[in-house]
From TrEMBL:
<dbReference type="GO" id="GO:0005886">
    <property type="term" value="C:plasma membrane"/>
</dbReference>
<feature type="domain" description="G-protein coupled receptors family 1 profile">
    <location>
        <begin position="36"/>
        <end position="291"/>
    </location>
</feature>
<keyword id="KW-0812">Transmembrane</keyword>
<feature type="transmembrane region" description="Helical">
    <location>
        <begin position="274"/>
        <end position="294"/>
    </location>
</feature>
<keyword id="KW-0297">G-protein coupled receptor</keyword>
<keyword id="KW-0472">Membrane</keyword>
<feature type="transmembrane region" description="Helical">
    <location>
        <begin position="20"/>
        <end position="44"/>
    </location>
</feature>
<feature type="transmembrane region" description="Helical">
    <location>
        <begin position="133"/>
        <end position="154"/>
    </location>
</feature>
<feature type="transmembrane region" description="Helical">
    <location>
        <begin position="56"/>
        <end position="80"/>
    </location>
</feature>
<keyword id="KW-0325">Glycoprotein</keyword>
<keyword id="KW-0807">Transducer</keyword>
<feature type="transmembrane region" description="Helical">
    <location>
        <begin position="100"/>
        <end position="121"/>
    </location>
</feature>
<keyword id="KW-1015">Disulfide bond</keyword>
<dbReference type="Pfam" id="PF00001">
    <property type="entry name" value="7tm_1"/>
</dbReference>
<dbReference type="InterPro" id="IPR000276">
    <property type="entry name" value="GPCR_Rhodpsn"/>
</dbReference>
<keyword id="KW-1133">Transmembrane helix</keyword>
<dbReference type="GO" id="GO:0004930">
    <property type="term" value="F:G protein-coupled receptor activity"/>
</dbReference>
């Protein structure tokens, strides 16, 4: 990222702290993110045949988080050593995985919120919904998000040919024409942030409204409360991790394009950019909270089923012993 401002009228912005910030943040979230998402994949895959629709989306969300987490050691190495010996391809791949995780997480969180909300209010739709429909949605999501994230590493590849020892925040930024950049920024913000934000807020509001109706709380209230907590968690992860980044990213790009030249806005956007990226990375540790709700739901079902099976076995043994007597 730039270490000075885009306008000669503004004083230089010192962002040398970002290497320490990135190294510390990635070190802190690596172990919890790796353990939590690996355990989540193992647990979720065990229950993949259970009758719960959101599990397919959660498995894909865990895969997206794990892909980013596995690239963190290379990022930590670079920000500590300030050199990159792993080649251009690995550099751009790690850079790509960051944004793939960011936008795949946004879409899968949106899918979980929508599905939970719809199936809570329309249980008959949940009954007839096929798991393969979720799998098809996930394939489309990976294809669309994967293609949409390609411009991020492409726009940061300008300095690779000149200096192969730099990567990530120290890469140059390819500046397209202003109309092209504004169009790309608008599409990215609308499709990757504004629309998911509106959908998640609406689903959270509708779910809360539905659960506040006493008529609907008479039956299966525990499961419905878990659905509410899951939707609220989706909204919380979205607001904490992704909202600061996307709001600041608008000003950050306009500053780099010399469209915004106000020194105050320029200084704030460039200085806050590293912090917003760190917040976006924390989602790898917050997403497993969703998996906890899912695992507890399965655990309750298994305990109920296990109690039923045990009861039947005891009854059959008592019947057999009475026959022998």
């Amino acid at each position: 990222m730039p270490r000075n401002t885009s306008s000669s009228n503004c004083s230089s912005v010192d962002v040398t702290f970002q290497s320490t910030l990135y190294a510390a943040t990635f070190t802190i979230i690596f172990i919890p993110g790796l353990l939590a998402n690996s355990a989540a994949l193992w647990v979720l895959c065990r229950f993949v045949n259970k009758k719960n629709k959101a599990i397919i989306f959660m498995i894909n969300l865990a895969v997206a988080d794990l892909a980013h987490v596995l690239s963190l050691p290379l990022r930590i190495f670079y920000y500590i050593k300030h050199t990159w010996p792993f080649g251009n391809f690995v550099c751009l791949l790690c850079f790509y995985l960051k944004y793939l995780n960011l936008y795949a997480s946004i879409v899968f969180l949106t899918c979980i919120s929508v599905q939970r909300c719809l199936f809570l209010m329309n249980p008959f739709k949940a009954k007839y919904w096929k798991r393969r429909y979720d799998a098809a949605v996930c394939i489309v999501v990976w294809m669309v998000v994967g293609a949409a994230c390609l411009p991020f590493p492409i726009m940061r590849s300008s300095g690779l040919g000149k200096n192969e020892t730099t990567c990530f925040a120290d890469l140059g930024l390819v500046k397209p024409s202003v109309p092209t950049a504004v169009a790309m920024l608008t599409i990215a913000e609308l499709s990757g942030f504004v629309v998911p934000l509106v959908v998640i807020v609406y689903c959270t509001w509708k779910t809360r409204q539905f659960l506040q109706n006493e008529e609907h709380l008479v039956e299966h209230s525990n499961e419905k409360q878990k659905a509410m907590r899951m939707v609220l968690t989706c909204a919380a992860v979205f607001f904490i991790c992704f909202t600061p980044y996307h709001i600041n990213f608008i000003f950050y790009m306009l500053v780099n394009l010399n469209i915004i030249k106000n020194c105050t806005v320029l200084n704030i956007s460039i200085s806050f950019h590293p912090f917003s990226l760190c917040l976006a990375s924390i989602n790898c540790c917050l997403d497993p909270v969703l998996y906890y709700f899912m695992a507890s739901e399965f655990r309750n079902k298994i305990s109920r089923n296990g109690s039923t099976v045990m009861h039947r076995r005891l009854m059959s043994r008592e019947s057999a012993s009475s026959v022998k007597e």
